[in-house]
Design brief:
The protein is α/β, with parallel strands linked by helices and 496 residues long. The chain has 16 helices and 23 strands. It folds into 2 domains: 272 residues, Aldehyde Dehydrogenase, Chain A, domain 1; 186 residues, Aldehyde Dehydrogenase, Chain A, domain 2 (3-Layer(aba) Sandwich).
Amino acid sequence: MKKSDLRVGPVISGREFKSRDAGFLDVINPATGRAIGRQACCDPATIGRAVESSAAAFRSAEWQNTTPAARGRLLLTIAELLERRDGEFIELELLDTGKPVSQLKGGELPLAASLLRFYAGAADKIEGSVKNTEGGFFSISTWEPYGVVAGILPWNYPLVNAVMKVAPAIAAGNAIVLKPSAETPLSTVAFGKLCMDAGLPAGIVNVVTGKGSQIGNALVSHPRVGKISFTGSTSVGQAIQKLAADQLKAVNLECGGKNAIIVFADADLERAAQAALISAFINAGQLCVSCSRLLVERSIEKPFAECLRARIRKIVVGDPRDSKTLVGPMITRAQHEIATAALDRALREGCNIIAGHKPLKLGRELSKGFWFAPAILGNVRPGTKTHNDEIFGPVLAMLPFDTEEQAVRISNSVAYGLSGSVWTADGERALRMVKALDTGIIWVNTMLTGYPEIPVPPHRMSGTGVELGMEGLLAYCKRKSAVLGYDSRAPVGWNL
């Protein structure tokens, strides 16, 4: 099969399902700008069929009798199959996202497998409580699955995010309907098929494809969907939360970020510079927990800028199949235009490019791709759009601070609170910063480490709920309490 012949569509009840004619969307390789295939757009009837299939699978005796330990073994099998077929998934992610192969091999595929294994081990660790209450009663508190979960995925990490939702949902005993981004459906559809190959009952994992808003709205509003887990932009997250409120549905939202890396004068400048560039430019800056603001203590502003200049010159932007490449393309032409407009606006605001953003040398094959040379901005002022607004591109805004209090104030001044990073040799200062910064996760003298066992709870406009860790598993459960009378003399109610 030629790459241009790729065809994907919904996976329902363990097989590819042909939707009624609701049209098709091209699948574009962002590295070349060319169509590599098409995806079917699901019509409302197909979406309803997917949800009903998952609801029936959840209610089936087969799934209801599947123990937590057995669910864990199924997740282990999925992990083993994913590793065995890693070449297939790397190729699909390369075509879909244009990500460098080194990041897929060394980062994303191992992370996806580790997520599956973590939740496989956690499946039988969900614990309730029993209390001997006053008056001759036992109270029992347990966790139960929601039933059908809708997992709505972003385009930046399609496979990892699919696994991040499927693994805890299955470990908790749910069925799930996945909606991949219209820009990156390939690996999610393949993962849905792999789940069936691993032995999951048909319908426990279904996948629907097509335009985001139409399918997302249909999933959120479907009465059999008990929980929504969304990763994506803040504006879409807000719309989902409003729609879910009509039926008072549980919602997990991991949305945008405008995260800061804060570097004090006593930090290891070389390591901090490396962390700043990797965090800001990995996946072409299209990562919600990356740090796009760089706060540097004023006394080291100039030498640190030199560290950055020396390192950015070594960053390879280009062919994703080259093992030396660190930065690939932007995901779409529209996203490239957003980053370009943001950089132009920054210059109008008085910022200047202090490093990077040099013309790229790309071969003919890549000339039509959505390439954006990484840039570091100086003379950035707090309160400007450049400082406050998420760009979601390889643009790093650098600005100085004079005191610890000022660094905290600048960091917390944006609407988001997803992640942050602090670099200092002073342990007491590090603890003060961890306490003062209003973000869900803070790295100290490191960056982008700790998954999957560490929970990430977004703050403020970055979202609601918790991803990852044991708390991320409980996010796919609902509480139930029971009161058991063991004394015939106990009152029936209200001590009557």
